[in-house]
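Quick one - inputs below.
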Amino acid sequence: MTSISIIGAGNMGTAIATIAATGGASVQLLAQDAEKTAAAAAVAGASVVSGVAGDTLTGEIVVLALPYPAVAGVLAQYAGQLDGKILVDISNPLDFATFDSLVVPADGSAAQVIAQTVPGARVLKAFNTTFAATLATGGVNGVAPTTVLVAGDDASAKEALIALLIAGGVLALDAGALKRARELEALGFLQLTLAAGSSIGWTGGFALVK
Amino acid sequence: MTSISIIGAGNMGTAIATIAATGGASVQLLAQDAEKTAAAAAVAGASVVSGVAGDTLTGEIVVLALPYPAVAGVLAQYAGQLDGKILVDISNPLDFATFDSLVVPADGSAAQVIAQTVPGARVLKAFNTTFAATLATGGVNGVAPTTVLVAGDDASAKEALIALLIAGGVLALDAGALKRARELEALGFLQLTLAAGSSIGWTGGFALVK
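Output:
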């Protein structure tokens, strides 16, 4: 059975936990506040185990369902425990004060920064181009199915995540090497600016049509 | 009446000429080969005037419907004639040998390079996120309508192009300042890699859902 630990129990973490539980995975949901995390886990599925950030990770897949500024602290907290794990970065590393630029190198990405920080982990970029509501419903405002784009350099890691998502009822697609995280983060950034400017809603966004 | 000159009579130039003619604009279509350009103009609309690259531009809007490597030569050819014009860059500046990187600065874009080259022009980025087939049909593989994303620093230039596209039957949306061309080009790049890898078809791609 696939096992997954999700750190962060906000809308994104809860939606990902729900998909993983639906897909039959063993799911651990961790966040700062034990009570809120337990409530989110109950929403995600009866089998979802909750805990607090810092608990030993039970998942072979670890999702950082966190805003980018919180990632470094969690990586430090789990130093030495992430080697060999499939480590999934979902962040959109915007400068949220201006909504006008990213805080990572222009020729790189948050995912690549994380891969440099934790060289023993099998880092994937995923989920940053899908708003939480589109993960929760499986559709982009009812017009097209939601597709999770997954980039990474470890083929079997990508396969494992994509298989779990598809088992959980959400389309998922290999978007290429980890360096494509630059483009995925640009897409996520653009989508956020359009939603923040009310050009699109938070239940919409870019739907991938085959 | 809006007037538009389109340089390049390939699939993109012909699709844009068709939309502009449908929208009631005075359309000039220019390319290297007079005979092929006349044939493309006839497809685009009975009122579309054809000519060869180098002819005096009659449009207040000038669309560079060219692959990025051809842009510099055309800008040199029209040096001094582009000041005050609304100059529309549609390019996806990929390294087409590798399909793995862009040939413009990572913190910039082809559109910004063009704006630096022709500082008197009112440069817009548009059309690079919509495959030609989706412009020609107005839909992304029948699933969602096609939306042209337009970025630029000149509000009235953006308004003019967006109004013409909507008059021509295609949705169009203000995607922000010219610096957002970085993100639009990243999106176009990603979409091209997905199509080149057969993950999506050339009639599909990213559809913007509100």
